[in-house]
């Protein structure tokens, strides 16, 4: 049989048999694949049928959207009117009504710069400088007292502008601090290293509320008589220290990931420690740690609510104060649901952004 | 062409040479030392300045320093606690109550969060589309909203419940009202301590025996499985202790009496709100950790196990779970520590945990610094204890390589 | 083949150099003299201390005993001396160590602009000239990750040359390369040698050594076992250990 070649007509391509694809298949695979799945799907469907119509009725159909508190009492649904009534308080705190435009402008500046920062091509030390400038501008807008703007003390700041200010202040102030702590922890000088390790481990071992508490209530005790530090500034310092301690560990991880050869090559060329750190090590390290840092950043946003405990009126604090009104106090849950949605929108967007950054960096261009 | 005539042998390193003053300035080590001395001076100087200010401030207010205040009478009541406390008891006892409260709510939150989180994490991986989507929705919802807001929200809902006189009675002798949840609960009896001790002892014994048996099985010395026996031991020991201690069955049953509900055990709304806020939030993170852990076991492992013919149960118990657990435990432990620390949020709703009580003590006694030191010391001890436990676990569980 | 070398004072001198890593005696009584324009190839089994020795020369490692003198300056803890020595020495690493977040040109101009205060324009011109010399001028705007291993190593050589060193140290420059790229790097090094650069090369490439070296140095277990001109070294090694090593490496 040697030399016999097997010739066959090529097999043509055919579409898949009916039973293996199509919309019916899609449903079957996902919902009814196997006995336990059939049971599960039916159970869930039954539960949903029980809950959803009532939920919908309460939240939408029977809900009261505007009107006084009495209108809510007569209706049986959700009282969204509390939001319509109190939204200014919730969103702006006790900031003077006429000056709300300034607070809004401040928020617009911050959010615009945040969106710009989301794009990788703008990442540089220059962007950081832009943030510092923007925060100064925002502070000027909120404070007033110059350029003909009426002065508004920090004790009157509240609501969303305050939350955003605290959040971005924490990140913009905390990141450089984190970098210095991380570099210090990796230093070969034992005193510097011990100091940084001490700060990092102690701050990470205690709750945020104690750090805030110490900053807000204890700091005045340690200042000479007559020296007072603004309450908002104290809280902000506490938030920055807390954020920096956690972020420092993440940055340190990034620094450790840079191959030692990079520092050696820089040394061989003759760069000093700071030249080498600034030009060679940090750009690489920071790029690596952006995904885990984003987690910490999102957590910093959620942590802004803690300042309500030390007497500042961020969104949560303002809402809690706003619902004390006896006419509306029964409908507090609706107000809280409103700010739930607010926080969710911010955090969810940041979380999705973080995922997209992670994806982009892992299929990265060069390293 | 040259070959060194004398082959040098190995020597120990020489002693360090003396420092010559002349070249000291440009020496790398001198600069290092000078910088560190500067740092020390700055830090100590600032600390001394600040402490001095504090001393002056405290002195002008006539507040004594030192930890002697702990033996003074507290002068304030504490809403709830595992041990009895009245306003005539000392500050020290107040601390004890507060720490127990913290541990109580944290421990329960950790257990609840682990249970819920594990279920949700597994559901996330389910083939059933609705299940997976619902679980994902849970995770996204609870992770992307602040924990404090969740705690305040639950508390607000609970305070809107009816007065005890019109309490809800969903089942049997369970009542839910704005004063809390009242359940039938066995009356306090020494037997419970014996049962607890028996359980703890049985668990330790079971772990030790189980590992010994696993080692012997690996060596081929025996083929006996000990699983069922150990389970019986852990389940049976507390029952035996109960029996020996007199088999108490007295149960407090809540009943409506006058203006309030009497009997049984009460879970205060503060406790429930804090528990819900802590556990549901952390559960979302645990769910992600569980999901990531299970997914971290590479497909190759699973395919190899299937190729050998392992059943689904064995596949998960012997191949997937051990490896997944190694990946899951460290971040989970971090979440547990975070839970304990965030129990301090109880201050926002009035639950008497460590931070809250510490605040009250500061206000009443004026010994701010000492109280803060005590509070931080407790939190740090807990954090470091769990970190040490985690290191020990990682060391024991490490995959041994060449 | 021996060349006539300048009879000026030696470029690099190692006198009784000893180094310890903690308690481990890793360099034992190293004595070596390298004259201006000389090409030295150091070979030996792994762990013999060859890399450690040349890394001591530009103070990437610190020796505890003995003297290292580079172009008349003795290397001590004195920062001025370390800086001045590093200015004279260029180093090429086994793993290239290019800075991945900068383009090739940026990698090259970093040293001259920051350390020597050169203007950016001048540095870029010099960079292009050097890239042409290592035959990859078209890669100037690319990132290291986009280049092949051989190209990356040539960029690394150019980067070292940007500092106008008097001596070039090569630490196993081709060991991390795929075989087909080794020759392009070796060719570059041969051209460099032909231009008169003083070189110390740690390598296993014996063909290159035979072609270029003025002096072969064999190290084993922390000591210099044998030094000889290449012809004598390959044809007639004196020590048993040298013979063993050569038999292992040349039978490849």
In round numbers, the mean pLDDT of chain C is 90
Radius of gyration of CA atoms of chain B, rounded to a whole number: 29 Å
Main sheet strand line-up of chain B: 1-2-7
Please give the share of residues in helix of chain B: 55-70%
Work out the number of β strands of chain B: 7
Structure description:
The complex is a heterotrimer of chains A (367), B (402) and C (252). Chain A is mainly alpha-helical and 367 residues long. Helix content of chain A is 70%, strand content 1%. The radius of gyration of chain A is 28 Å and the shape is flat. Chain B has a 3-stranded antiparallel β-sheet with strand order 1-2-7. Chain C has helices spanning 50-57, 79-88, 104-115, 120-133, 149-162, 179-194, 206-212, 230-235, 240-250, and strands at residues 12-21, 24-34, 39-43, 65-70, 73-74, 89-92, 167-171, 198-202, 215-220, 223-228. Helices cover 39% and strands 24% of the residues of chain C. At the A-C interface, helix 11 and helix 12 of A face helix 2, strand 6, helix 3 and helix 5 of C.
Could you give a short description of this structure?
The complex is a heterotrimer of chains A (367), B (402) and C (252). Chain A is built from 14 helices and 1 strand, in the order ααααααααααααβαα.
Topology of helices and strands:
The complex is a heterotrimer of chains A (367), B (402) and C (252).
Chain A: H1 23-31, H2 35-61, H3 69-74, H4 81-92, H5 100-117, H6 125-143, H7 159-185, H8 190-205, H9 208-222, H10 231-257, H11 260-269, H12 273-303, E1 313-314, H13 315-322, H14 332-362
Helix pairs in contact in A: 4-7, 4-13, 5-6, 5-7, 6-7, 7-8, 7-10, 7-12, 7-13, 8-10, 9-10, 10-12, 11-12, 12-14, 13-14
Chain B: H1 28-60, H2 91-124, H3 129-143, H4 147-159, E1 175-177, E2 180-183, E3 185-186, H5 190-219, H6 227-244, E4 251-252, E5 255-257, E6 260-262, E7 265-267, H7 269-296, H8 299-308, H9 312-342, H10 354-365, H11 368-397
Antiparallel strand pairs in B: 1-2, 2-7, 3-4, 5-6
Helix pairs in contact in B: 2-3, 2-7, 2-10, 3-7, 4-7, 5-6, 7-9, 8-9, 9-11, 10-11
Chain C: E1 12-21, E2 24-34, E3 39-43, H1 50-57, E4 65-70, E5 73-74, H2 79-88, E6 89-92, H3 104-115, H4 120-133, H5 149-162, E7 167-171, H6 179-194, E8 198-202, H7 206-212, E9 215-220, E10 223-228, H8 230-235, H9 240-250
Parallel strand pairs in C: 3-8, 3-9, 6-7, 7-8
Antiparallel strand pairs in C: 1-2, 1-4, 4-5, 9-10
